[in-house]
């Protein structure tokens, strides 16, 4: 018992430092939200039929308390309005689990102008490009009228990245991603049955107010497909946020795993990202929630390594979905490194893994 108590003392000290980092990130949200309120006002004033009725939602490490660096991206979801909601479309799965295309329902006579093709399919890429380009023009107007933010922006493949400067002179990065509302859980093919989800999601799904979205862009590897311009992918970032916010124990396990990953360079070397840890943690949520922190962290690394030894990381929310998509050698090598880290990292040396002031950005990209 004394051994575990000592372990948790060391680990709690590290977590206190990580919580201080997240408190600093929280302190930046006021400026982020002030900018978004201004942006939304300009979007309404612009009068564009799509932009004027869009809304914002928030996801990622900055909104989960799972940041391991003060330099953390703010993931902003730009949610499209009617008629671009899933209830207006029939859903067709394409290529692999979690990839879809949408067809306008026959019973609705009037199709959205310009974004549904002759066969009735939503032109997802065209809609995404249009929205991002219009958003970019509005950001230009905000930049002109609000020079104190020192706004810079860059159009990415699937999003608009906006940099603003806050009152402390810190540069904040906002990744604004275009998404549209999805149907209810049971309406999608190959979804994990609700009874197999962790109990933390039961009431969340039952109240019909949960946020589940389509991203208007699949992974880049689908660019070779003839119907790439029609494809959407499922986004579970707000469900991940809910799960992380509901359990200190699970959130702590993810934080410590991300800290080790950042120290070992697994994102750079293998493309291992924050959501990979979170999906494994959510699959084993009931077990991790209630374990002492060190045991939960060790168990999370164990389960992640076991999945990689099977050459995948399970999407969990969707049956038979691999969200890692790396070749067998990469999976084997990463699994080996994770098991080595599980052996090497001790409670009394985790302090050495804490980031310096010039550490890399904590990004969910």
How many helices? The count is: 10
Overall number of strands: 9
- Structural class determined from secondary elements: alpha+beta
Instruction: Name the overall outline.
Output: globular
InterPro entries: Mab-21-like_nuc_Trfase
Pfam families: Mab-21
Family: Belongs to the mab-21 family.
Protein name: Mab-21-like nucleotidyltransferase domain-containing protein
Fold blueprint:
Layout: H1 2-46, E1 55-59, E2 74-79, E3 89-93, E4 99-104, H2 124-145, E5 152-155, E6 159-165, E7 171-181, H3 202-206, E8 213-215, E9 232-235, H4 237-246, H5 248-264, H6 266-270, H7 274-283, H8 285-288, H9 293-309, H10 328-344
Parallel strand pairs: 2-7
Antiparallel strand pairs: 1-2, 3-4, 4-9, 5-6, 6-7, 7-8, 8-9
Helix pairs in contact: 1-2, 4-7, 5-7, 5-9, 9-10
Organism: Petrolisthes manimaculis
Family: Belongs to the mab-21 family.
Protein name: Mab-21-like nucleotidyltransferase domain-containing protein
Quick overview:
By secondary structure, this protein is α+β, with helices and mostly antiparallel strands.
Describe the overall structure.
There is one protein chain. It is built from ten helices and nine strands. It is of the alpha+beta class. Strands 1, 2, 3, 4, 5, 6, 7, 8 and 9 form a nine-stranded mixed beta sheet that branches. A hairpin with a 5-residue loop joins strand 3 (about 90-95) and strand 4 (about 100-105). The chain is globular.
Keywords summarizing the entry:
365 residues; alpha+beta; 10 helices; 9 strands; 42% helix; Mab-21-like nucleotidyltransferase domain-containing protein; Mab-21-like_nuc_Trfase
